[in-house]
Write a structure and sequence with these properties.
alpha/beta; Rossmann fold; 2 domains; 8-stranded parallel β-sheet; 5-stranded antiparallel β-sheet
């Protein structure tokens, strides 16, 4: 019965997905942690001195340190053995350290008893892409009169028609506002750095002119040898009205992008990665001024350190948009992460997928997961976007719904809204309900036009506009 409900391209998707579920596993020796002393963050490198002083003052009344404890302390004292992710309040002990998570955890437990510290300490864990439909090429010509675009591939983008993106662009242009420049980070497998529909859309690091960072190789080469990241990047913000390729979501004016893409390669060429590199990517995004980020990957085991990473990024004004997943699950019974963190982080969104055909009743896509965390959804079936080698392709999944929503969020950012306002606006302007088989009632598809209308009428954006005008 399920296959009868699925679009033609998705029948293969299900067979592909069924063989690729990968649960969290730790295969690096990195340890992620955060330590507090009397409620104040504490550098783990300071603990050995505190322990030595406390032991000396105890007159032998406290348990002495073990060999593993001394190995931990020697590790912490070495240069380049502990990474400081200051923007999100996390530290990572490098895999070169001769002790692993178990030894560090035991050391911190002993320190807790001696020093009354509090801490979270997690092993590095494996993450994977949400599986998507394998590439399917198409020939698209003629532009799209509904969107008002001359990009030939936009004729194959009914998904953007569904969210009324053309009307949203027109409303924003007609308002005549000076747009704010914002940066949207794509945390994924990298990007085709020379793709003609993307090459003008990249953020540039003022330090070295790079367009992001590769956390797999610790380099600035973010070349996508998978395809997923390139597809997500184009979906979010490919150049629009340039007479080639497709239309991206985020930019109101195709010739002068106000939304630039920061490319954070934290998934390898197989689509796999680690929570430590996710944390490093989030930290990089916040430190380098990205107001938004798109995350189309998942893991299945809760992780207090990663919860803190997303929570602290949100506290710094950063808005993360994440994918619900393609497991056909009710997430309240089978949570995936980071999506589920959206329940407790109000400015964070987790996005489900809808069907993409404007000529049919819109429902939740058959593969899409959903739950209390998913207040919004976006088209995720047969989404046409950029592909490595300067080409274009269809893909399906909540991986596609997520950069669409992140693109609309960034568009609202150019109008002056900020993270919490944007999340609230997208939820309030969504469609009224979305038929689904997950038993989820508090969900609707995003409506870019209504969201822009709300943004243009927002007291907060009017106030900021008046302040900017009076300061000129």
């Amino acid at each position: 019965m399920f296959n009868n409900l699925m679009p033609k391209r998705l029948t293969f998707f299900w067979a592909f997905f069924a063989g690729t579920i990968t649960f969290g596993e730790s295969t690096t020796n990195r340890t992620l942690l955060r330590v507090f002393h009397r409620g104040v963050p504490l550098d783990i490198r300071h603990i050995p001195k505190m322990m030595t002083q406390t032991l000396a003052a105890s007159d032998g009344m406290m348990e002495s340190l073990s060999q593993d404890d001394h190995d931990c302390e020697r590790c912490f004292a070495q240069d380049d053995m502990v990474y400081d992710l200051k923007a999100i309040g996390i530290q990572i002990v490098d895999s070169k350290c001769p002790v692993g998570h178990k030894q560090i955890l035991n050391y911190l437990r002993k320190a807790k008893n001696m020093l009354s510290i509090d801490f979270d300490c997690e092993p590095d864990s494996r993450v994977t892409l949400h599986p998507t439909l394998a590439a399917d090429m198409a020939t698209c010509t003629g532009g799209n009169s509904v969107l008002g675009t001359n990009d030939p591939g936009s004729s194959c983008q009914p998904n953007l028609e569904l969210i009324h993106l053309g009307a949203a662009w027109e409303a924003a242009r007609s308002a005549g506002r000076k747009l704010k420049d914002v940066v949207l980070a794509i945390s994924d497998t990298g990007v085709d750095m020379t793709h003609p529909d993307l090459v003008n859309q990249f953020w540039r690091n003022p330090a070295d002119n790079s367009i992001g960072y590769n956390f797999i190789t610790n380099s600035i080469d973010v070349t996508d040898r998978h395809s997923h990241g390139t597809h997500c990047a184009g979906n979010a913000a490919a150049q629009t009205n340039n007479n080639i390729g497709i239309a991206g979501v985020a930019n109101i004016d195709g010739s002068v992008p106000s939304v630039k893409l920061m490319i954070l390669k934290m998934l390898d060429d197989t689509g796999g990665g680690y929570t430590s590199d996710i944390a490093r990517a989030i930290n990089f995004a916040v430190e380098n001024g990205a107001a938004f980020s798109s995350h189309s990957y998942r893991w299945f085991d809760d992780n207090e350190i990663m919860r803190a990473a997303f929570r602290n990024a949100a506290a710094a004004g950063h808005m993360a948009v994440t994918a619900a997943g393609n497991e056909m699950a009710n997430l309240d019974g089978w949570p995936t992460f980071p999506c589920t963190y959206a329940i407790e982080i109000p400015s964070m969104l987790c996005v489900a997928a809808t069907t993409s055909d404007p000529t049919e009743d819109v429902t939740m896509a058959p593969f899409s997961s959903a739950g209390s965390a998913t207040k919004v959804a976006a088209p995720g079936v047969d989404v046409y976007s950029t592909f490595p080698g300067g080409s274009y392709s269809y893909m399906s999944g909540t991986s596609m719904s997520t950069p669409t929503t992140a693109g609309v969020a960034a568009l609202l950012g150019t109008l002056g809204l900020e993270s919490q306002e944007i999340a609230d606006t997208l939820i309030k302007s969504r469609t009224d309900g979305l038929p689904n088989w997950r038993g989820v009632s508090d969900i609707g598809m995003i409506d870019a036009f209504k969201a822009v209308q709300a943004a243009l009428g927002s007291p907060a954006t009017r106030l900021r506009k008046n302040i900017q005008s009076s300061s000129r």
